[in-house]
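Action item from last week, closing it out:
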Amino acid sequence: MWFFRRKGASGFSYNSTAEEVTHGIDGSGLTAIVTGASSGIGSETSRVLALRGVHVIMAVRNMAAGKDVKETIVKEIPAAKVDTMELDLSSLASVKKFASDFKLSGRPLNLLINNAGVMATPFMLSKDNIELQFATNHLGHFLLTNLLLDKMKETARKTKREGRIVNVASEAHRFAYREGVRFDKINDRKSYNSFGAYGQSKLANILHANELTRRLKEDGVEITANSLHLGEITTNIFHHMRIVDGLVSTLEKFIFKNA
C-alpha cells in the first residue's frame, strides 16, 4: 500500500531496514549496551551495530539465548565485537550488579539502548514487589541509565563524541490510563488493565527521555536522550496476548497514528 512506501523527512520509509538506515556509517571505536538483546528488535539492533563496527554489550536475562544470538552474529560477521552480560530489568539488584560489573570492566560507553520490555502481562509483581510492566519497562531502565550516566559523560568528554541514550517507547503511550502515570496506584490490582499499564510504562519512558534531555542540555553535556516508536513490528513481546488482541491493538495504534 502507498503509505508503507512513502518516505519521510529522513529519506526512509516504513519498509526501511536497519542495514539501510546505517549504510555508510562507521561505528568503529564505539561501545553500545543493548538491553533485551536475546531476541526480536534487540537482537537485530545488536547485529546491525556489530556490522557497523560497534562493540556491542548484549544485556540479556536469558544467558543461553544470548549466547545463541551472539554465536549467530559472529558466524555472519567474523570481525564482530560482541559480549553478553546478564541483566534482569525486573530486579533492581540485578540492574545494580550489571552496572557495577560494566563499570569495573573499564569499557567506555557511547550508546545505551533501553530496548527490553514486557507487554500486556497479567497482573504480576516484580522481585521488588512493583507491578511488573512498570518495574521492567521503566524503573529498571531508569535506574540503569542513572547508574551508567557518569560513565557516558566521561566517555563523551574523553572521546569528543556525542553519546546517545535511546528509550524504546511506543505509540501505545497514548493508551495509558486516563490519569497518565498513576504513581499512587502502581500496584492497584483491582483497577489494573494490562494494556493501560503497558501504555503507562511507555509514557514514563518518554517523560524520562524528555526530562533527561533538558537536564543534559542545561548541564552542557554532549549526550542526547531520545524516545522512539519502532512501528508495528510483531515480536515475542506479544506472547502474553492472544493473537487477535495483538492484531487489534496493532491496528488501533496504526489508525490512531495516521488519522
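Closing note: The radius of gyration is 18 Å.
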